[in-house]
Design goal:
It is built from ten helices and 17 strands. α9 links the parallel β9 and β10. It has an eight-stranded parallel beta sheet. A four-stranded antiparallel beta sheet has the order 11-12-17-14.
Length: 417
């Protein structure tokens, strides 16, 4: 990564925003909930474009406040924001000169991309855009709409690519200042040469703009892990995983299965431990408001980040350890190791790492700086290292008590031979 995009290696936590015409439908069509993603409702319910496009006249977004969105993201500990400039339904959430099917034609009329970009600049959050480069259910030559425009195999996708995709990518990368990342998605069967051309075009327009892994064929600047998944082992190249707050990306009026603050915070730590970035999604409703169920959880995680963000930001992947940790997880920001205690131990309040031969200089509670007693031992007959820490009797933080360990040498673990 160049100096201009080195922010990504430090920013481990970002906000994803899925918001568009689909948000007005709330995951329901003709009185029935449509499965598999509220933002996919047009395709999954096979809604004719002529009918779906009438949502344009209902898009008023009276509660949308870009400044509040970004200010909240910053308060919640997020360092970058990815917004759906164009999702698979083909509708643009910015003022596009390439297609009239855009937000300027709605009663709302304002440019959501511009407002979010300006707010990100104000609060020091890296602004990024999502762009669906293959699927476009509003275009006769875009991929995916076979109920209005016939089989995909009979479409002129290259005409769509050159007539819409590249011109709109140019709009996004020339009209909105520096873009930290362009988040492409669902390349499916897109020819490799067009994926390469798209990547090259992004770099031509903005050399420091990162290209997501879903540009296809390993051509991205980082690996995009499948939705809501986490690798088992540490992956020592740049990677990110997008995660939902409930079971969908777009707003659903019937899905209230919000992940708990504990689940989100533990997932963040686990992803960072393995060298990744968590891109956590919120799906505003049709008015532009954030569902209360998700904002409450994000506030709890944000409060934890205010006190413990040091253990997350700029952390690197932890070497794989042969032993599971009974107390929780660890993150690593040389020369510091952070022990994240999810399962607070009963008397004698001890946590332990087996197989760590590295010498320890000091151990403290991250939250207070209180020194903690620690013991390092090695048993020659079993060739076994043990590192023990004695915690306070009362749990300092039930969500995740963080122990800061200063190491005298780089972190390694003993292989299990």
């Amino acid at each position: 990564m160049t100096q201009g995009n080195s922010w990504f290696s430090k920013a481990r936590y970002g906000m994803f925003i899925h918001w568009g015409l689909y948000s007005l439908m709330s995951g329901v069509y003709n009185g029935k909930e449509v499965p598999y993603g509220a933002e996919w409702i047009m395709k999954n319910a096979r809604i004719p474009f002529e009918e779906y496009s009438k949502l344009v006249s209902d898009f008023r977004a009276e509660n949308f406040d870009a400044d509040a969105f970004v200010r909240s993201a910053k308060e919640w500990g997020m360092e970058y924001l990815v917004f759906t400039a164009k999702h698979h339904d083909g509708f643009c959430m910015y003022h596009s000169e390439v297609s009239d099917y855009n937000i300027s034609k709605t009663p709302f009329g304002r440019d959501a991309v511009r407002e979010l970009m300006e707010a990100c600049k104000k609060y020091g959050v890296v602004f990024c855009v999502y762009y669906s480069q293959m699927q476009d259910w509003a275009d006769p030559n875009g991929w995916g709409n076979d109920w209005d425009f016939g089989p995909d195999s009979e479409k002129d996708f290259e005409a769509y690519f050159r007539g819409k995709v590249k011109p709109q990518v140019k709009e996004l990368l020339t009209n909105y200042g520096p873009i930290g990342m362009i988040w492409f998605d669902t390349p499916y069967t897109m020819p490799k040469e067009l994926c390469q051309e798209l990547r090259d075009y992004v770099k031509e327009l903005q050399p420091d703009c990162l290209v997501s892994g879903r540009v296809g064929y390993g051509l991205g600047d980082f690996r995009e892990i499948p939705d809501n998944e986490t690798p088992v082992l540490t992956f020592h190249k740049p990677w990110e995983t997008p995660v939902t707050m409930n079971n969908t990306w777009g707003f659903s009026e019937r899905d209230h299965e919000w992940k708990s603050a504990e689940t989100i915070q533990h997932k963040l730590v686990t992803i960072v431990q393995k060298g990744g970035h968590l891109l956590l999604n919120i799906g505003p409703d049709g008015t532009g408001a954030v569902p209360e169920g998700s904002s409450q959880v994000l506030q709890e995680v944000g409060a934890w980040m205010q006190e413990n963000g040091e253990s997350i930001y700029e952390a690197i992947g932890v070497p794989d350890n042969a032993y599971q940790l009974r107390f929780g997880q660890i993150t690593y920001r040389p020369p510091y190791l952070y022990m994240h205690v999810f399962n607070y131990p009963r008397f004698p309040h001890e946590i332990m790492i087996v197989g760590m031969p590295v010498k320890v200089k000091e151990v403290t509670l991250l939250k207070t700086g209180e020194p903690l007693t620690f013991i390092q031992s090695y048993e020659i007959a079993r060739d076994e290292y043990r590192f023990r820490v004695i915690l306070p009797e009362a749990c300092p933080d039930p969500l995740d008590t963080v122990v800061k360990v200063e190491l005298e040498e780089p972190l390694t673990f003993q292989p299990l031979n």
